[in-house]
């Protein structure tokens, strides 16, 4: 009898717990929410045939495109990469925030030295506060042409999508194919100082499709049921081409960009730059039509250089309930979608302006309202002098270059993050990257006579938690061109964009600080500007570069150093023991 009160108290506590679990079932999973998922990436050569030509390409586990990584928000990923090829390799987990895990970010000579032949490295990081479609790719030279794959981050369990639950999800990876070895392509361009040869085909999930030479069998077929909703996870993994994407006779609903939910909007055609991801809903027709529909992509190009002006196609096929009708699919007419002109900058501007953060109570747009540091960066082309030992084919022994604020970035011989962490920056990098262009001029008008760029390994240093506003301004030097700029380690908010030269007095008055697009890669408009804001809440060294690989090769890149904060959870931990050495 003496134990009765305590037993009653225990039962009351249990009743409260059971009621809580009944009312809030997600609590029952909270303790076991995080899962550690292990993957092994064997970097190996694989013979692949496209366009009736066979070549040996660099792959992960012999797959092209590479294996899909699937995780949930909050999961830890442990990915062992073993290099079996002659090339040095690193892997970047594009769009993953890497909160306090910068050692796993992946860009060669920025956060790590490359993984050499016969060596391995374990990328260990947690997916914090992100859900949606991202991707992984090689981040050294041009190896990402074939070394890439999708990252699918599902919401936490019992956390539904803020849109119609899809019947099925389909990854769509846009890419480029060269018949030649892409390393030989960029090496030849580097030797001559001229633009590299363009690709021989564009691809969808590694396949060129029936419009390309000798490729009728190398065609992706997406089979759908009538009256269903499909989620297409789009990734532009192309090296050098922004892409229009469309499905004939179908409307797409954009619901996410760069793993951030957006306000849904419908479109027949969307624009996606290299580095970007976009999730769209495809609502199939209620009755199976007697036709097939092209899933197509073709380049959006605004620059002066040649580009691969080819269209890649996959096939959308409806499943018929009657087997006899399903067998006649090969004889059905194929409808193709219309596209904007290849250089339709008006379409590009209108489309990008339609992308808005969802900004709901559950998924707010946390736009920095105040600004601690302001930067104005010009991005564009130029030329630089070649050494006497080089035989560059530009005028007066010069080569084409690209620069940010007239600084063409020189890759170091050791990783910037190691140099920063251990206080060994001398001779590796300097902290005098200019906050503004060294010379003011009419950026989108007549170029200055002197278009020579300077060179250096320069960075910007930010204090922890500083809010940053960055205006990226295209220039007309050699030719105006759009530039998809990617920032590692952060998402930023695109608070404004426009044509011509940025006006620091008038344009900020029109900034969207309520529901701007939140992305990790933004297209700087051809002959225009884009303004972004972000919070420097992630200590480490973070690369920012054009995601047109040719421009990155020419030097259109720089790095930000974010210093440690005062608290323990605001500091970058020491590197892992297996971090590769240079």
Describe the structure.
- The protein is mainly β and 582 residues long.
- The chain has 7 helices and 33 strands.
- It has helices spanning 4-23, 27-30, 182-192, 323-326, 345-354, 416-421, 549-554; strands spanning 36-50, 53-60, 69-72, 76-83, 91-94, 120-126, 132-138, 148-154, 168-177, 201-204, 221-224, 229-236, 242-247, 252-257, 260-267, 269-272, 277-283, 292-300, 312-318, 334-335, 373-385, 398-404, 407-409, 454-456, 459-462, 467-474, 483-487, 492-499, 517-519, 521-524, 528-535, 540-546, 557-562.
- Strand 23, helix 6 (416-421) and strand 24 (454-456) form a beta-alpha-beta unit.
- Residues 1-5 and 15-32 have low confidence and may be disordered.
- Residues 43-156, 169-320, 432-565 form the Plastocyanin-like domain.
- Belongs to the multicopper oxidase family.
Oligomer: single chain
Termini separation comes to 74 Å
| Low-pLDDT segments | 1-5, 15-32
Number of strands: 33
Q: What level of helicity do the residues show?
A: 10-25%
Helix count equals 7
* Major sheet: 6 strands, mixed
- The radius of gyration is 25 Å
Work out the strand percent: 35-45%
Rounded mean pLDDT is 94
Shape: globular
| Helix vs. strand class | mainly beta
Strand order in space, largest sheet: 10-9-12-17-14-15
């Amino acid at each position: 009898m003496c134990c009765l009160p305590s037993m009653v108290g225990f039962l009351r506590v249990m009743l409260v717990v059971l009621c809580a679990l009944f009312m809030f079932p997600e609590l029952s999973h909270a303790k076991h929410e995080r899962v550690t998922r292990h993957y092994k990436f064997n970097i190996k050569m694989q013979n692949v045939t496209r366009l009736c030509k066979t070549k040996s390409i660099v792959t992960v586990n012999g797959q092209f495109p590479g294996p899909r990584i699937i995780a949930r928000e909050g999961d830890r990923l442990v990915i062992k990469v073993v290099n079996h090829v002659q090339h040095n390799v690193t892997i970047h987990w594009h769009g993953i925030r890497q909160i306090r895990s910068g050692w796993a970010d992946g860009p060669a000579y920025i956060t790590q030295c490359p993984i050499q032949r016969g060596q391995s490295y374990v990328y260990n990081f947690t997916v914090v506060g992100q859900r949606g479609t991202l991707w992984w790719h090689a981040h050294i030279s041009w190896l990402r042409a074939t070394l890439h794959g999708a990252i699918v981050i599902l919401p936490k369990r019992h956390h539904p999508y803020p849109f119609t639950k899809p019947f099925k999800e389909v990854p769509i990876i846009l890419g480029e194919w060269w018949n030649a070895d892409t390393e030989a392509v960029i090496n030849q361009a580097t030797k001559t100082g001229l633009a590299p040869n363009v690709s021989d085909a564009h691809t969808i999930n590694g396949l060129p499709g029936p419009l390309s030479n000798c490729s009728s069998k190398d065609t992706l077929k997406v089979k759908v049921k009538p009256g269903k909703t499909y989620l297409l996870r789009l990734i532009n993994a192309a090296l050098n081409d922004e892409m229009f994407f469309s499905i004939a006779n179908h409307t797409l609903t954009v619901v996410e960009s760069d793993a951030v939910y957006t306000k849904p909007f419908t479109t027949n055609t969307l624009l996606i730059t290299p580095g970007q991801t976009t999730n769209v809903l495809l609502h199939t027709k209620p009755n199976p039509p007697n036709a097939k529909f092209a899933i197509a992509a073709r380049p959006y190009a605004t620059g002066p250089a040649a580009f691969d002006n080819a269209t890649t196609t996959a096939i959308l096929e409806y499943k018929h309930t009657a087997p006899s009708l399903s067998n006649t699919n090969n004889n059905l007419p194929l409808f193709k979608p219309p596209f904007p002109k290849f250089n339709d900058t008006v379409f590009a501007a209108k489309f990008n302006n339609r992308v808005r953060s969802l900004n709901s109570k559950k998924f707010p747009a946390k736009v920095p309202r105040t600004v601690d540091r302001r930067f104005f960066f010009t991005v564009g082309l130029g030329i630089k002098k070649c050494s006497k030992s080089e035989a560059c084919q530009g005028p007066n022994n010069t080569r084409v270059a690209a620069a940010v604020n007239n600084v063409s970035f020189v890759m170091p011989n050791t990783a910037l993050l190691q140099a920063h962490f251990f206080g060994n920056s001398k001779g590796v990098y300097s902290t005098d990257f200019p906050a503004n262009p060294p010379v003011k001029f009419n950026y989108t008008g007549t170029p200055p006579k002197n278009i020579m760029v300077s060179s250096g390994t320069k960075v910007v240093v930010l204090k922890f938690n500083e809010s940053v506003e960055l205006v990226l301004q295209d220039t007309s030097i050699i030719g105006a061109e759009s530039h998809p700029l990617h920032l590692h380690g952060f998402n930023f908010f695109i608070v404004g964009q426009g044509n011509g030269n940025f006006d620091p007095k008038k344009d900020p008055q029109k900034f969207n600080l309520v529901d701007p697009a939140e992305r990790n890669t933004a297209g700087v408009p051809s002959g225009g500007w884009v303004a972004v804001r972000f919070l420097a809440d992630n200590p480490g060294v973070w690369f920012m570069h054009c995601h047109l690989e040719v421009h990155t090769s020419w030097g259109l890149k720089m790095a930000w150093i974010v210093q440690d904060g005062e608290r323990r959870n605001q500091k970058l931990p020491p590197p892992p023991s297996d971090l590769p050495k240079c």
